[in-house]
Amino acid sequence: MTLLSVENLSVELGRRPVLHGLDLAVGPGEFVGLIGPNGAGKSTLLRSALHLLPAQGQVRLCGTDSTAMSARERAACVAYLAQEREIAWAVPVEMVVALGRSPHRPGFAALTERDRAIVDAAMRRMDVEAFRHRIATELSGGEKARVLAARALAQDTPLLLADEPTAGLDPAHQIALMRLFDSLAADGRSVVASLHDLGLAARWCSRLILLDKGRIVADGPPSGVLTPANLRAIYGVEAFFGEVDGAPIVHPLDLAAPD
Amino acid sequence: MSADRHYTLLIALLAILTLALFLLSLTTGPAGIAFAHSMKALLSDKADGVALIMREIRLPRALLGLMIGATLGLSGAVLQGYLRNPLAEPGLLGISASASLGAVLAIYTGLSASFLLALPLAALAGAVAAVLVVQAIAGARGGALLVILAGIAISSFAGAMTSLALNLSPNPFAAVEIMFWMLGSLTDRSMVHVWLAAPFMLIGWAMLGSLGRALDALTLGSETAASMGIGLRKVQFLAVFGTAAGVGAATAVAGAIGFVGLVVPHILRPLVGARPSRLLPASALGGACMVLAADILVRIVAPERDLKLGVLTAIVGAPFFLWLVFRTRRSLL
């Protein structure tokens, strides 16, 4: 079963067309990196897949037409890690993470033992257990990002859409997050994450989708998408390409000469 | 967990305080009646003077204080949570201003003198009109910013129309009546006012009270909340119409009582661990305490001068709010 399928998806923001008839399908066990320059439409694609923006075309989540699903049914299929790290009130970290369980609880029900276990596991995986009782708004940017990632993990969905999840994290936590997404994929779940760090994308993703000006220009394994020609044409950069232990290394070096 | 016990304790204390202030309100007044005597009279079915004072004057006054305070506190907490803005308050949606305008027009046209409920009904009509316009402007998809902007526009317009009514007022007595009404008061209300306001307030409480979990999720922003299964249109509808029903009815029977919906959620937020869903019951009880206490104070401070309730809440509320802002500033530095 495909977890996410998008057919002929077009989106206009204001009157400006942002996406032009996109098609893509994500099956189980994939860690998809969504890459492309600023303004390529990465966030718009994620948000319209989540039904957060009015869009034309068809989006199917966990095999069902998303327009026929309630917000709660969608929440049982897909979790979203937003780019803005908004926490409006000075609430404890633990409560933020536990919010991830709310789509699974009826009415005013309290957290069950199982909910607590999932919340604890999510906090352990994101390495935020140590500050579970601290006030979330008083954390550093990177710590806040990890708490919000733990919240998305606690939603415990087959599909996770993450908008620039590694921004603001230190290298160790960036790699830990990539490893985590990789292990989710190994469990048969799927992650679609927009990324700006091509090195991380090349090394950890099982598949990359390269967007430019609202269109998919390349889709496939990292070695097929991150080519010198694509980086020059889409990003306008020259890069170093290498390999360590069978995994590709890509590191942008300088601006490409204008043609 | 200790946070849970702390919260239960807070709610219990607020409930006890509310009950105590309610009883105190019942036993405060120009007719100095002893506590035991007044309670006995209230519960008896005799029709002597004391029983009449208790049932016809003090009971409706205390009940309205309780209901209006709870409505203002609850809707303040909901609107701050929904708009994710600590400055939000029921007046922001333009409902108080429009309800006032409805009442003012009733006084201005003389309609209010024609039958007892003419004024509160006109005020309710004003509140309904305001909420329909706000909802129409903000649209079904809405968004917090549009709700705020539409509310401010409605508030300003209703305020301008009220000024116009004062300006063109046929005689100084009508103008004074309008001014006094707008200050907000619980003096000389009857059980009829209670029965008029109660159904709207109960509907309002049910709508606003159902929003706890949605408001918790909205802590992380509207898009994340939507991705967690929160229907934003429904939340907007419940927040806006719930406030209109409750605050519209409150303004209709007592005039505009400011600062309660703004200050009470502020005071209580740190005590409930800032969690929006927990703030709702706490803020409803806190609002009831504040209005009951203020209404007792107006009777004690100046029993002969008919000090208006809305004036007192503003006089006490504004400096207190200033102190809160000052404290916040210190924690930001």
TrEMBL record, chain A:
<dbReference type="Pfam" id="PF00005">
    <property type="entry name" value="ABC_tran"/>
</dbReference>
<dbReference type="InterPro" id="IPR027417">
    <property type="entry name" value="P-loop_NTPase"/>
</dbReference>
<dbReference type="GO" id="GO:0016887">
    <property type="term" value="F:ATP hydrolysis activity"/>
</dbReference>
<keyword id="KW-1278">Translocase</keyword>
<protein>
    <submittedName>
        <fullName>ABC transporter</fullName>
    </submittedName>
</protein>
<keyword id="KW-0547">Nucleotide-binding</keyword>
<dbReference type="GO" id="GO:0005524">
    <property type="term" value="F:ATP binding"/>
</dbReference>
<comment type="similarity">
    <text>Belongs to the ABC transporter superfamily.</text>
</comment>
<keyword id="KW-0813">Transport</keyword>
<dbReference type="InterPro" id="IPR003439">
    <property type="entry name" value="ABC_transporter-like_ATP-bd"/>
</dbReference>
<keyword id="KW-0067">ATP-binding</keyword>
<comment type="function">
    <text>Part of the ABC transporter complex HmuTUV involved in hemin import. Responsible for energy coupling to the transport system.</text>
</comment>
<dbReference type="InterPro" id="IPR003593">
    <property type="entry name" value="AAA+_ATPase"/>
</dbReference>
<feature type="domain" description="ABC transporter">
    <location>
        <begin position="4"/>
        <end position="238"/>
    </location>
</feature>
From TrEMBL, chain B:
<comment type="similarity">
    <text>Belongs to the binding-protein-dependent transport system permease family. FecCD subfamily.</text>
</comment>
<dbReference type="InterPro" id="IPR037294">
    <property type="entry name" value="ABC_BtuC-like"/>
</dbReference>
<feature type="transmembrane region" description="Helical">
    <location>
        <begin position="280"/>
        <end position="301"/>
    </location>
</feature>
<feature type="transmembrane region" description="Helical">
    <location>
        <begin position="60"/>
        <end position="79"/>
    </location>
</feature>
<protein>
    <submittedName>
        <fullName>ABC transporter permease</fullName>
    </submittedName>
</protein>
<dbReference type="GO" id="GO:0022857">
    <property type="term" value="F:transmembrane transporter activity"/>
</dbReference>
<keyword id="KW-1133">Transmembrane helix</keyword>
<feature type="transmembrane region" description="Helical">
    <location>
        <begin position="145"/>
        <end position="166"/>
    </location>
</feature>
<keyword id="KW-0472">Membrane</keyword>
<dbReference type="Pfam" id="PF01032">
    <property type="entry name" value="FecCD"/>
</dbReference>
<keyword id="KW-0812">Transmembrane</keyword>
<keyword id="KW-1003">Cell membrane</keyword>
<keyword id="KW-0813">Transport</keyword>
<feature type="transmembrane region" description="Helical">
    <location>
        <begin position="117"/>
        <end position="138"/>
    </location>
</feature>
<dbReference type="GO" id="GO:0005886">
    <property type="term" value="C:plasma membrane"/>
</dbReference>
<feature type="transmembrane region" description="Helical">
    <location>
        <begin position="307"/>
        <end position="326"/>
    </location>
</feature>
<feature type="transmembrane region" description="Helical">
    <location>
        <begin position="91"/>
        <end position="111"/>
    </location>
</feature>
<dbReference type="GO" id="GO:0033214">
    <property type="term" value="P:siderophore-iron import into cell"/>
</dbReference>
<feature type="transmembrane region" description="Helical">
    <location>
        <begin position="194"/>
        <end position="215"/>
    </location>
</feature>
<dbReference type="InterPro" id="IPR000522">
    <property type="entry name" value="ABC_transptr_permease_BtuC"/>
</dbReference>
<feature type="transmembrane region" description="Helical">
    <location>
        <begin position="235"/>
        <end position="268"/>
    </location>
</feature>
